[in-house]
Amino acid sequence: MDVKSDLEAITAVGAVLCQQPMARYTSFRVGGPAQYMVLPRDYSQVVGVINYCNAAGIRWYVMGKGTNLLVSDEGVEGVVMVLGENLAEVRLAGTTLTAQAGAALTRLSAIALANSLAGLEFASGIPGTVGGAVVMNAGAYGGEMKDVVRRVLAATPRGELVHYSAAELELGYRTSIFQRNGNVVLEVEMELTPGDGEAIQAKIDEYTRRRREKQPLDKPSAGSTFRRPPGHYAGQLIESCNLRGVRLGGAAVSEKHCGFIINDNQATARDIYRLIRKVQAEVKKKHNVDLETEVVMWGKFI
Ligand SMILES: Cc1cc2nc3c(=O)[nH]c(=O)nc-3n(C[C@H](O)[C@H](O)[C@H](O)COP(=O)(O)OP(=O)(O)OC[C@H]3O[C@@H](n4cnc5c(N)ncnc54)[C@H](O)[C@@H]3O)c2cc1C
Fold this sequence. Notes:
The protein is of the alpha+beta class. The protein has helices spanning 3-10, 43-56, 105-114, 130-136, 178-181, 197-214, 234-240, 269-287, and strands at 16-21, 33-38, 60-63, 69-71, 76-82, 90-93, 96-100, 117-118, 139-140, 143-144, 149-155, 161-165, 184-191, 193-194, 247-248, 251-253, 261-263, 296-298.
């Protein structure tokens, strides 16, 4: 079986890369090779790759911009489908913005601003794709994807296309139905609100200022490492355990924001993983609170 040639027959010559270091494709800048990386250009190619992998017994994964992903140093076996710039068309019709999964949230926020449409100001500083953002119900500063998403086109793990209405998405705090059913988000329809260009710009400027002030944007990370536990803030719990700035290998708890674990100095994925576990253990010991990761982990860590 020549997997690369088979995948190229489904997609295109040049759309399949072998042994690509995931460190190059994730915001943590760590992670070993993906055995096969596939860059589909349309929905039928995505479905074709799913069907091929299922029939051949090959494990497959999907990612956007890798801004919420920690991949192990050994990398991942199987196929990693990247839905990024290769699948990123956007259409605006009145107040309805429809984007393919790989469209960058920052770009969508800029399009909304340019057309004086409100609703995506919160997304201006979130570095992922709209597909990843729906899966995570990404949000910031009081806004979240749930506020704007109306419909989603997805592919099931068996390769069938399905439409979801907003009510069917089960969007909650950093969660959606897709974290449970493993569907691949292909297209997202968002409904925005006519607004005042200057007011939209002012909100974006304010959020950008707050991000720069509070977040360690100069170091590789995956944003907030942990989910907010009910009734608490992860950063405060971590700080109260005297973990600010604590290091393990090249990984560190950010001095600027304790909720961020950063790749401070050539960390390995294992350094980051071990630091996550240490933080979880100390918070559990002192506060009896379970800190769950928001960051998604792929591969073996032990
Ligand atoms: C500096 C920084 C700041 C951040 N700030 C925020 C913030 O304010 N708020 C916030 O919510 N997040 C934030 N994040 C985290 C991250 O940007 C979001 O979670 C984003 O939505 C992830 O999108 P992605 O395309 O990078 O997903 P990836 O990291 O590529 O993937 C994350 C998960 O989604 C799945 N996935 C991705 N695309 C698809 C798809 N098309 N179909 C099905 N599954 C898919 C992957 O399998 C994986 O499980 C931040 C990250 C960084 C680095």
